[in-house]
UniProtKB/TrEMBL annotation:
<feature type="transmembrane region" description="Helical">
    <location>
        <begin position="243"/>
        <end position="264"/>
    </location>
</feature>
<dbReference type="Pfam" id="PF14494">
    <property type="entry name" value="DUF4436"/>
</dbReference>
<keyword id="KW-0472">Membrane</keyword>
<dbReference type="InterPro" id="IPR027948">
    <property type="entry name" value="DUF4436"/>
</dbReference>
<keyword id="KW-1133">Transmembrane helix</keyword>
<protein>
    <submittedName>
        <fullName>Uncharacterized protein</fullName>
    </submittedName>
</protein>
<keyword id="KW-0812">Transmembrane</keyword>
<feature type="transmembrane region" description="Helical">
    <location>
        <begin position="314"/>
        <end position="336"/>
    </location>
</feature>
<feature type="transmembrane region" description="Helical">
    <location>
        <begin position="12"/>
        <end position="32"/>
    </location>
</feature>
Length: 364
């Protein structure tokens, strides 16, 4: 196979080979860039109510995760009303689902128990169809955009169960997952009746993260007339971020193994070029820079100032620290060997140079 590749390159010549390699790399770079832009900026949530079960009456909500604060461990969520189902809540004569069709006022409550006096709490958001002034039907492209939205900040829960007492958990970077849980309740403030929730749609607009969610409805115990609703909002890193971070981890390990291999060869008295042995010093200082270039990488934790909510990720415990340890020891061994081989003790006056031979003196 190598002979075939060498024959092709020899036939094409260096200039044509460089041109083909440049075009191939350019196509690859454009493809990766388009995929990244598509994942982060071109996604569009479906406002269609076709997938909503028409057997359930009530409001249809949309939860958009638009920001995340890693230090405060919070998600910023924008709530919208994208439609309603049932004649009671749409004002239609049939029970179909209507986009932007909620015809009754609504108050949204999060993390409140219905049995308590919820009416004494401030709602997360308030909706009144009588004051909606958004021009829905006479501006093209505006028909499917929600008429009203309200923002809230939700606390995230760590991914690992045993880190529940910590403020953050980045152990699984770049495969970490953060989730926020909440109960949901919608009330008609006109008569204080509960508005059922037909469905909740989820999406995320945080750059480098993928937003998703799950909506749950739980039937209350026998004898009760209402249904309890809850949801889980999740954020995980984009595939491009995961791939790039793992590529850098593999690069650090590859360089560490290369330096280790050079050290083993020197230990067994095999000769290597001095330039290769000095390259280990460059690699020693390059590994921290590669670790720092990982996208949104968690910072290093100072063990002398360790607090309960901070911890190092597995990429540091099983990667960076070991890489630095290996390269540091190997670099010391290589430099010591280089110094020992290049050192020549000075010759004393009583020693003869083995490169010369004494000749007899012939008299005249």
């Amino acid at each position: 196979m190598s002979r075939i590749v060498a024959g092709i390159m020899k036939f094409l010549g260096p200039r044509v080979t460089l041109l083909i390699a440049t075009i191939t790399l350019a196509i690859f770079a454009v493809g990766i860039t388009n995929q990244y832009i598509s994942d982060n900026f071109s996604g569009r949530v479906s406002m269609s109510l076709d997938n909503v079960d028409g057997n359930y009456d009530g409001v249809v909500l949309l939860a958009n995760i638009w920001n995340m604060d890693m230090n405060a461990q919070t998600m910023s969520v924008s709530w919208s009303i994208i439609g309603a189902c049932g004649a009671t809540y749409t004002g239609r004569i049939d029970d179909s689902c209507v986009a932007n069709g909620l015809s009754v006022p609504m108050n949204l409550y999060l993390n409140l128990v219905p049995a308590f006096s919820w009416n004494t709490s401030t709602p997360t958001g308030q909706y009144d169809p009588s004051i909606i002034q958004t021009p829905l039907y006479y501006i093209p492209g505006r028909q499917d955009i929600p008429t009203f939205q309200f923002d809230t900040v939700m606390t995230m829960d760590p991914f690992l169960p045993y880190t529940m007492d910590k403020k953050s958990s980045v152990l699984y970077y770049p495969f970490d997952l953060f989730t926020a849980y909440s109960s949901v309740m919608t009330i008609n403030p006109t008569d204080n009746s509960t508005i059922p929730i037909a469905d909740v749609k989820f999406y995320g607009t945080v750059v480098d993260w993928i937003g998703s969610g799950a909506f749950y409805s739980t039937v209350t115990p026998p004898g009760a007339s209402s249904t309890l609703y809850s949801l889980a909002l999740s954020l995980e890193r984009q595939r491009a971020v995961k791939a790039f971070a793992m590529l850098l981890v593999i690069t650090n390990w590859a360089m560490s193994i290369m330096v280790l291999w050079m050290t083993i060869k020197v230990t067994f008295h095999q000769k290597i070029e001095s330039g290769l042995s000095l390259a280990s010093t460059t690699i020693l200082f390059a590994i921290p820079q590669i670790r720092a270039s990982m996208p949104n990488a968690p910072p290093f934790v100072d063990s002398s100032e360790l607090v309960p909510h901070e911890t190092d990720g597995f990429i540091d415990i099983g990667g960076y620290f070991i890489n630095v340890l290996i390269v540091s020891i190997c670099t010391s061994v290589l430099l010591f060997t280089q110094l020992r081989n290049s050192y020549q003790p000075p010759q004393t006056s009583g020693q003869q140079n083995p490169g010369y031979r004494l000749l007899p003196v012939i008299g005249k």
